[in-house]
Amino acid sequence: MNLHYTPYLLEFKHPFGVSSNTRTHTPTVYVRLEMDGVYGYGEACLPKYLGESTEETLTFLKQVKLLFEKATKLEQIQEMKDELDRIFPANNAGKAALDTSYWDLKGKLLNKPLYSLFGIQKSDEIVTSHTIGIDEEKKIEEKVMEAEEFKILKIKIGTKDDKELIRTLKKFTDKPLYVDVNQGWTDLGFAIEMSHFLSENNVVLIEQPMPVNRIEEMVLLTEKSPIPTIADENVKRLSDIANLKGVFSGINIKLMKCGGVTEAFKMIESAKTNNMKVMLGCMAESSCATAAMVHFAGMADYVDLDAPCLIKNDPFEGINYMNGRITPLDSPGIGIRLKSIDSLFE
């Protein structure tokens, strides 16, 4: 078993603004797991707010490489992978890359797509939102025009000018909206007022409206909000879900937070058991990591898997976006391929 990894810098088509910062690029680390000449790919996307650096991730992967390369069978990799949380408590993005590469490799060896490996029925109607970062009016208009084919837009808010930002967006579109506050609201009264304002302006949901430590306020906001509240920064792993029932209406599951598709699937099942909405999201991943989540999209209430559309130097391909929908991936594994074979791992 051979494990290779390489750092890479993903570049946005436009500067990407959220309530706390604006960035033009995101570091990522790609993983390639090889057995008998067959490759499985994974990705550890590392935006600064995740709290995991490229250097830490490379160090983690270097240590894991020594373990994985002792394996001669795929079952041994599964056993080692199951032990990673005990040996390395952090490095969720790195674990996500390894877990995804494992399932990609397994699918290719068995000639089955990822959804089939998990016993999921393929969905032909996967509608994803398209994200628009905080920006000036002219740029917002440009981004709305670029996203013309998408049926749902997602807007980043969380500033003192949120109402004006929504009004500006509404000048250019009447499409349903998801809003992501990124913990930007700190006043409960304002948050409740905004929830009603957003509901009146065709907003479908509010993602992470308040800081992670405002649990009591979030309970009240969720009770009073006419639209669902979705946890993002408040939920990372499976163990977080039980404590969020009644605090949020649902959860946003992201590979880079939860440690891979294995746990993402368990989180979907847990959320449904707890009568919570399921949103599948992404950070700034390329087609590599995003493609893995597409296989679970038929199980979700909301899908926000548009990251590859925001990137201008995606080294992978395989996800087809058409008329605001994601075409199901039927190729073995996660369904992606390098645009230039071995260009990342030379």
Task: Give a description of the structure.
The chain is an alpha/beta fold and 346 residues long. The protein folds into two domains: 2-111, Enolase-like, N-terminal domain (Enolase-like, domain 1, 2-Layer Sandwich), CATH 3.30.390; 117-338, Enolase-like C-terminal domain (TIM Barrel, Alpha-Beta Barrel), CATH 3.20.20.120. The protein has twelve helices and 16 strands. Strands 5-6-7-8-9-10-11-12 form an eight-stranded parallel β-sheet. Strands 1-2-3 form a three-stranded antiparallel β-sheet. Strands 4-15-14 form a three-stranded antiparallel β-sheet, with no helix packed on it. It is globular.
Q: In summary, what is this structure?
A:
This protein has 346 residues and is α/β, with parallel strands linked by helices. Helix content is 34%, strand content 23%. The chain starts with a strand and ends in an 8-residue tail after the last strand.
Features:
346 residues; Enolase-like, domain 1; TIM Barrel; 2 domains; 8-stranded parallel beta sheet; 3-stranded antiparallel beta sheet; 12 helices; 23% strand; globular
CATH class of the largest domain: Alpha Beta
**Helix share of residues?**
25-40%
Order of helices and strands: EEEHHHHHEEHEHEHEHEEHHEHEEEEE
Structural class based on helices, strands and sheet pairing: alpha/beta
- From the spread of the alpha carbons, the general shape counts as globular
The appropriate CATH architecture of the largest domain is Alpha-Beta Barrel
The overall average pLDDT, rounded, is 92
Number of strands: 16
Q: How many helical elements? A: 12
The quaternary structure here is single chain
Distance between the termini: 18 Å
Task: Name the beta content range.
Answer: 15-25%
CATH superfamily of the largest domain: Enolase-like C-terminal domain
> How many separate domains?
2
Poorly predicted residue ranges:
none
